[in-house]
Design brief:
This protein has 167 residues and is mainly α. It has three helices and two strands. Helices cover 89% and strands 2% of the residues. It is rod-shaped.
């Protein structure tokens, strides 16, 4: 079952004489746990993907460095060759640089997309934590009120007993 933050925020439990239906609350909490676990797995997958992309960038940077070294060698050789060989070397260098830049740009774009996705998941997780904490605090308040009502009922019952015994 997919649970969105709106599902969590808008979910209403049926009320019984003594509070919310415990089975429904437990079931809903189980569903939230499953959804949260899925989010954590997604975060882990995104982190793994991010690491892979970093490795690819490092490989691309190494390749770019090698290409730069090749470019220097080609330039030195081109100076010694005829004008025709010099022109061909320049064309090869330009193509290599363009290709390297395209590869680098693609890798950077992928990182940006993955980072934005990671941030969105992080924000969703933070919002979920806030809502979950609020829900728990609300339930604790209801339990306190129920305890207070129970104490008042016991006091009223004791008063009635004392009244009946005095008659």
């Amino acid at each position: 079952m997919k649970i969105s933050p709106l599902d969590i925020y808008n979910h209403e439990f049926n009320k019984t004489t003594f509070g919310y239906n415990v089975k429904q609350v437990d079931q809903f909490l189980d569903e939230i746990g499953v959804a949260y676990e899925k989010l954590l797995k997604e975060v882990n997958n995104l982190q793994d993907n991010n690491e892979q992309l970093k490795e690819k960038i490092t490989a691309q940077e190494d390749m770019e460095e090698k290409l730069q070294n090749i470019i220097l060698t080609v330039q030195e050789t081109a100076k010694e060759m005829t004008k025709q060989a010099y022109k061909e070397a320049e064309i090869i260098i330009k193509r290599a640089e363009i290709k390297a830049e395209k590869i680098e740009d693609k890798a950077k774009d992928k990182i940006k997309v993955e980072y934005a996705s990671f941030q969105a998941i992080k924000e969703s997780r933070d919002l979920f934590k806030i809502r979950y904490k609020t829900m728990l605090e609300s339930h604790l308040e209801m339990i306190k009120k129920d305890d207070e009502n129970e104490e008042k009922n016991e006091e009223n019952l004791a008063s009635v007993r004392n009244f009946n015994l005095n008659e």
